[in-house]
Fold these 2 entries.
Entry 1:
Amino acid sequence: MTHELLNGLSSVESGQVLKLGTKLIVPSGVSLFRLGDPADRLFLTERGRIKLTLPMRVRGREEDVFVEERSPGQTVGWSALIPPYRFTLAATAALSEAEVIALPREALLQYFAANPAAGYKIALNLAIVIGHRLQLFQTMWLREMQRTVEVRSA
């Protein structure tokens, strides 16, 4: 499987990174992490889908507002490599169980120090993943702003 975080790495480098991780099975509906949890590892989705949500209070009750789903080959939990190392969303296995590879931050940082060229490629790939999330939130914010302006104009 091709993982977006490992684009541009040789098969040897990809194998070295994957060996740092542990495979986890996440049953359907079970949380992988919650908003604000310490982010000590990031996850590569192998099988299934991971639903990302933003817990918020809506009309006096807690709701998980859907943000996006991540599918096989995609990265979840990049907060593990970005200070302050806290998850900024909640992640749950979607409709069926999911399988992920959990990569510990410390092991990744040691790998980057020992293999700076591979670490650089992973950092660039991580920037693309983060950029995608920023675009997604910008789109969501613009839609909400448009609704607000329309309501005020009516």
Note: The chain has a mean pLDDT of 94.
Entry 2:
Amino acid sequence: MPRRSAAELSVVTGIGSRANRLRPPPTLNETERTIFIEIINSTNPQHFVRSDLPLLVRYCEAHALCEQAANELKAGGAVIGGRPSPWLAVAEKSNRNVVALSMRLRLSPQARQPNNPSRKAAAGVSAYELMEGDDDTR
């Protein structure tokens, strides 16, 4: 790869510009569109790529449905006429979708952490010491 000149390196090309960010598709309703825009604007411009759009749309739909179910449960209660509200199932399933998709889209705090858990070194004999012990049997 050829070296780049100082003049070429000094030019910033579209980093963080709105042109690089995903735009909400017209299929989203107003609530879903608001969620979409909030997510896009609160993340790094390079966080999402074009192929993330279908998952992000499903996340926004599930998030909006989860909010609607929560509002219905607050207004009507979890039990209606001695039976569980149908909104309980909607809330549970939409919340499950939100959690799963937030991990896949790396929106949750856990998903943003680097995937290199620290491991304690195993105490005892190393593999090399075990191999040295095998030399005596030959």
Note: The beta strands are 79-80, 83-84.
